[in-house]
């Protein structure tokens, strides 16, 4: 069992002076993660929480946000034990795109990359309900979301936290500072047979890998957050999530951006198709992997599958640029 430490003091305000911004940038440089407080204002994050609940209820399978007894896989779309909802075109719902284009989120990532020409991932949405017994337990799955063969900082992952997320409310667990040891780790552990990776930009830590990190004195910490906070972490930082154990669900919208200059034309063309087909990608904004909307229910295609969003996003020019489509050259 992995022990975790609760950490709440690594938070910094987004709004304010340049100096404030430099503080959270220092945090993430040193620790591999940071919390940007209040990136989305209270009234708007409450609206997104409502949208997320309505989206689940909108399947008309019996889920009712006010009745915890209706939290059951028979009454919900397919949600993995990690809380992930990967299908049903959820990644392109209007409320998800609204979160992606929130000014406080965009300005944070502009600052991170010192670049305004960014593209965004079409990532999963997390609907973590507490104490579920109808799906398998969510055992720790420590990993990094970056190819061990490609060292150095490459991408900053992000998630928008929707409900109060305290010590017992599940959420992101990170191995503090271990992003800086990533290259050394992969050199020294290269002898080990890796856990099969579902895509090259993923590496799972084995017991021996965990021991290596422990021997280096690395600590695992639970990141706590309030509604509207943006959590960021370097994709080299070892991490996983835990399910909530109290009464509050843990809902999250993943928001990961990178400069368009880091994507090839071929990747942008693939991303365009993913967008037009309402498909998801992983965290990686340059569209390494394209998902699909064929969720399974009891081993067969879910009869409630959806292949387009209920409410299609209306993107302004800045939002549309995040799809990468305007950066595709005519020859591509
Ligand atoms: O939900 C989280 O906090 C992390 C999710 C994650 O690590 C992943 O999807 O790769
Ligand atoms: Fe991850």
Automatic annotation (TrEMBL):
By its UniProt entry, which Gene3D superfamilies does this protein fall under?
q2cbj1_9rhob like domain
Q: Which Pfam families match?
A: PhyH
Q: Which residues form a coiled coil?
A: none
Q: Where are the transmembrane segments?
A: none
Q: Which PANTHER family match?
A: PHYTANOYL-COA DIOXYGENASE, PHYTANOYL-COA DIOXYGENASE-RELATED-RELATED
Q: What is the protein's given name?
A: Phytanoyl-CoA dioxygenase
**UniProt source species:** Aaosphaeria arxii CBS 175.79
